[in-house]
Amino acid sequence: MLQHGPLLERLLNGDFICKISNHDAYRHLSDEQTQQAINDYLRPLNRRLVSNEDRSVYFLAYHDLTLEAREHLSSQFALTVQSLLPVLEWMQLVQETLGRDSALTAGDTIKLQEFVLRTEDNQSLRHRLNALAADKFFNSQSDALDLQVKLIFRRLREHGYLLQPHNDRQYYVITGKVDYLIDIIRFIRDEEQLPVDDAPAQENLI
Fold it and tell me: pTM for the whole thing?
């Protein structure tokens, strides 16, 4: 398993692997023999390789739901729910600001300056952005629009929803973790019947 060592390390650290975040790793994980080899290695660790329904992103799940696994999943789910509504609002805000007809998905590109300029020209969008930046998930302390936007995008990059291919160029690419988040929303909505539809225009996203 030495050839898969770095990949296994990323997965065990909780990374989500997609075509955008790591194309070579995603290609390896799409191979059934590689999947079997990784699952054989992970079985003693009570882990297994899984993907979302569209197979656009790979990540690890528990093999057996032990008490320890349930406690860990509960804490991880709480963190996901904490980010769920602000990330959804950001997605809706980008969609409206940039005039996109469909929801954001893996591979979509966002130019930071274009987003800032269009938000500046619309008082309603500025108000929503101010509220979003103040959310505890982003926790902006600035009133300056450009600084708020940069913080939001940086936080989303840190959490794996965005990739910045070049540090000196202000454009970002949506990763497959957004697809995973949408699947979580569908699960909450359809299976758990929790009130996730309080977010603005959420139904348009899912």
Answer: 0.81
